[in-house]
Design goal:
single chain, 426 residues, alpha/beta, Aminopeptidase, Alpha-Beta Plaits, six-stranded mixed beta sheet, four-stranded antiparallel beta sheet, 16 strands
């Protein structure tokens, strides 16, 4: 254990909290909304070059990527798909590891709900605040710091380590999908999404849907002559709630069953009616339907359609005027890894070396690029990163600087133990 302690001490000396704050402020200050990631990718390329990495910039042909049968979908218009990769090693045979971060962020929402400008990051109370700080530029900076430390140690690297920065995660994963088709797969991958430094081995998925519910218009004074599409939507919403309860009740995996709601069904947007004194003859509801582990996105869509069809058959109006459902946008599949596999166990050992505590294996109820690497890229992958997903996508989003430092140290120890020409023996 003496060698391991010396290793951690050396890593702690190399990884600078001040450098982490500097890099993160530079990235968060760039408004890299999904579909507009070029400026942030240029900054990532610059940071990688300064860290001593061999940087490869690519812009895959969008038409060709979209034409592939397993393309995961997208929701935001874009004219390019910039991918940046920083390579270290590769001159000798050995494993190939990817540290993968998405650079795109969601819109800030109502600015009045922010205490500061979301793209003018500030540090307060040990936290950096700004859009994307948690999801997931803090993780990107942790990965960069880890590879910078690996390079600074100055020992030959067995195999190759790649820091991969991709666009388009928030609306489906087109960037990771394109990177996989460029050959960015490997022996193992870690995605530093916000996990509170837990190791995520299971992630559920999600599909987006648009539900169109018909009614029959009538004057409000003659309400009984009409059929309110709003009331009929309520019928279908109750069916979705019953289905949600059943799907979650039958999940037995401890990583997911411990979550409040591993497979949520959520309605995020409703429009309907044309006049306050007219019975609404149409409601459009858009939402999210969870994809269960072991289930494809197509199977989840079929289950959703079945729920709506059965509910329509039980209603006297909808039986003859059924609602229609459309699946659109990004399709986030589910993915899982055994927690006793080499990647999660070796990463857990590194976490324990750095923190002195046992790492916790868990699952998450949101989609990520993990499922693309596992399912399409055939690359063992886990999520492990700084930040709490409960503050992601919210006003006053933040990430703890200490968590970024700890994450960077754990990733660096894991990389050094895996890629040193003389592996550490514990």
């Amino acid at each position: 254990m003496k060698d391991v302690s010396a290793l951690h001490h050396r890593i702690a000396e190399i990884i600078s909290p001040e450098q982490i704050v500097h890099d993160l402020q530079a990235l968060v200050s760039i408004e890299s909304l999904t579909g507009r990631e070029e400026a942030a990718q240029h900054e990532m390329a610059t940071l990688m070059e300064r860290a001593g990495l061999n940087v490869v910039w690519s812009t895959p042909d969008l038409r060709r990527i979209r034409s592939k049968l397993d393309f995961p979908g997208e929701e935001v218009e874009r004219s390019s798909l910039p991918i940046v990769a920083g390579h270290l090693g590769g001159q000798t045979k050995g494993p190939r590891a990817l540290l993968v971060a998405h650079i795109d962020v969601v819109p800030p929402g109502e600015l009045a709900q922010w205490d500061t400008n979301p793209f003018n990051p500030i540090v307060k109370g040990g936290r950096l605040y700004g859009r994307g700080a948690c999801d997931m530029k803090g993780g990107a900076v942790a990965a960069l710091a880890a590879i910078r430390a690996l390079h600074a140690v100055g020992q030959p690297v067995r195999g190759e380590v790649i820091l991969l920065s991709v666009p388009g995660e928030e609306d489906g994963g087109a960037g990771m999908f394109a990177a996989i088709h460029q050959g960015y797969t490997g022996s193992a991958a870690v995605i530093p999404e916000p996990t509170c430094l837990d190791i995520v081995t299971v992630q559920s998925g999600a599909i987006s849907f648009r539900l169109s519910v018909p009614g029959r218009a009538a004057h409000a004074a003659m309400r009984l002559m009409g059929v309110s599409a709003i009331e009929k939507f309520y019928v279908l919403h109750e069916a979705l709630k019953r289905n949600e309860a059943e799907r979650n009740r039958t999940e037995l995996r401890p990583e997911l069953s411990s979550l409040d709601l591993p497979y949520p069904t959520s309605i995020g947007r409703i429009t309907g009616g044309e006049w306050s004194s007219t019975v609404a003859d149409r409601v459009i509801a858009e939402g999210r339907y969870g994809v269960r582990v072991g289930q494809t996105t197509e199977e989840a869509a079929e289950e959703l359609r079945s729920v709506i069809d059965e509910a329509c058959k039980r209603d006297s109006w909808l039986r003859h005027n059924p609602a229609t459902i459309e699946i659109y946008g990004g399709r986030f599949g589910a993915a899982e890894m055994r927690s006793d596999a080499l990647l999660p166990t070796s990463l857990a050992e590194a976490v324990e070396i750095v923190t002195g505590k046992q790492a916790r294996f868990t699952g998450v109820s949101y989609g990520s690029d993990m499922r693309l690497l596992v399912n399409q890229g055939k690359t063992p992958t886990v999520l492990f990163g700084p930040g709490d997903v409960r503050v992601a996508h919210s006003a006053n989003e933040y990430v703890s600087i200490d968590e970024i430092v700890t994450c960077a140290q754990a990733l660096a120890v894991w990389l050094l133990r895996t890629f040193r020409s003389e592996p550490v023996v514990c």
